[in-house]
Design a protein that fits this description.
Shape: globular
Low-confidence stretches: none
Strand content: 15-25%
Pathway: Amino-acid biosynthesis; L-methionine biosynthesis via de novo pathway; L-homoserine from L-aspartate: step 3/3; Amino-acid biosynthesis; L-threonine biosynthesis; L-threonine from L-aspartate: step 3/5
Number of domains: 2
Radius of gyration: 20 Å
Number of strands: 12
Strand order of the largest sheet: 3-2-1-4-5-6
Family: Belongs to the homoserine dehydrogenase family.
Structural class: alpha/beta
Keywords: Amino-acid biosynthesis, Methionine biosynthesis, NADP, Oxidoreductase, Threonine biosynthesis
Enzyme class: oxidoreductase
CATH topology of the largest domain: Dihydrodipicolinate Reductase, domain 2
EC number: 1.1.1.3
Largest sheet: 6 strands, parallel
Helix content: 40-55%
CATH architecture of the largest domain: 2-Layer Sandwich
CATH class of the largest domain: Alpha Beta
Length: about 325
């Protein structure tokens, strides 16, 4: 039985989720694919920090150590920021090693470049986890685009901001109080700027735009507004009129063929598909040529939703790339 060797880049919340799922599904991989799955190395930032890893597993803070591990088949990347993630993934792809990423900041900017590298070196890059966590929007769009042209994509792409808006409405609290609650529950980082400002949703929207339309609008032309200025009174007035605020990212093609995109708080009524989406859930509404309007809703972040999306990409790799599971 062949062993698939895996390296993990990053062992935060998402990396831990991937590691746990891979270990818990080892028997299924043996039964369904006839392979053993082995994590052979983990790249971390602080070797002194205690982590839930077996003592025998190779752990390092040096990329060179991971790069020198022989016969790695697949790399999972769950670190933060454009660099060094982009350079790391380029390195592996150029060696024909498949990579799976959850890094939306990096992929929004460098995704097209990485896909071209992957194609040139007969490798695969999976990126389902970069957008909407456990919601299978990337797979859905890829399947949809085989027949349909997409006309519009609009969605709640950040669970933190959606939780805050939901909490302000249901608990009758201020933005600051709702943010604190989000941090207490682990839904928001110590620095929540990217989430509440709309930057995180913007990056995910750019990834979806590239896939759906084959291009992105000029970043500087996209209006990005956050939820920081919304007050409890704003929320209450919306509720009194039967409306709710949602933080919506949207991209579409205009009549002239140009792309336009925006990220902003939006008032929606009971008939809108995003009206009932509360808490940390994400939701994406796709308007397509023949299928019409399709809405996907699910958990947008977290250890297991995001980790699950990455492992599902892994299954796609071992299913579609014979050289991964059949020795040459």
């Amino acid at each position: 039985m062949q062993t698939i060797k895996i390296a993990l880049l990053g062992f935060g919340t998402v990396g831990q989720g991937v590691f746990q799922i891979l270990n818990e599904k080892k028997e299924e991989f043996r039964n369904f694919f006839g392979i053993d799955v082995e994590v052979v190395g983990v790249l971390i930032r602080d070797v002194e920090k205690l982590r839930p890893l077996p003592a025998h597993l190779f752990v390092t803070d040096r990329f060179e150590d991971i790069a020198s591990i022989p016969d790695v088949d697949v790399v999972f990347e769950a670190i933060v920021g454009e660099e060094p993630a982009y350079s790391y993934l380029t390195y592996f792809l150029e060696r024909g090693i498949h990579v799976i990423t959850a890094n939306k900041a990096m992929f929004a900017k460098h995704g097209l470049s990485l896909q071209k590298v992957a194609e040139n070196y007969d490798a695969t890059i999976g990126y389902e986890a970069t957008t909407a966590g456990g919601v299978p929007i990337i797979k859905t769009l890829k399947n949809l685009l085989q027949v349909n042209e997409v006309e519009n994509i609009a969605g709640i792409l950040n669970g933190t901001s959606n939780f805050i808006l939901s909490e302000m409405r249901t608990a009758k609290c201020t933005f600051e109080e709702a943010l604190q609650n989000a941090q207490d529950f682990g839904y928001a980082e110590a620095d929540p700027t990217d989430d509440v400002s709309g930057k995180d949703a913007f990056r995910k929207l750019m990834i979806l735009s590239q896939l759906a339309f084959g291009r992105q609008p000029s970043w500087e032309d996209v209006e990005v507004r956050g939820i920081q200025t919304l007050t409890l009174r704003d929320i209450e007035e919306a509720e009194e009129s039967g409306m709710r605020y949602r933080h919506v990212a949207e991209v579409n093609i205009t009549g002239s063929g140009n792309l336009q995109a925006v990220v902003r708080p939006l008032l929606v009524g009971p008939s809108h598909p995003l009206y009932t989406v509360d808490g940390v859930d994400n939701a994406i509404v796709i308007d397509s040529e023949y299928l019409g309007k399709l809405t996907l809703i699910g958990p947008g972040a977290g250890r297991f939703p995001t980790g699950s999306a990455m492992v599902e990409d892994f299954v796609q790799v071992i299913s579609s790339k014979p050289k991964v599971i059949i020795p040459q």
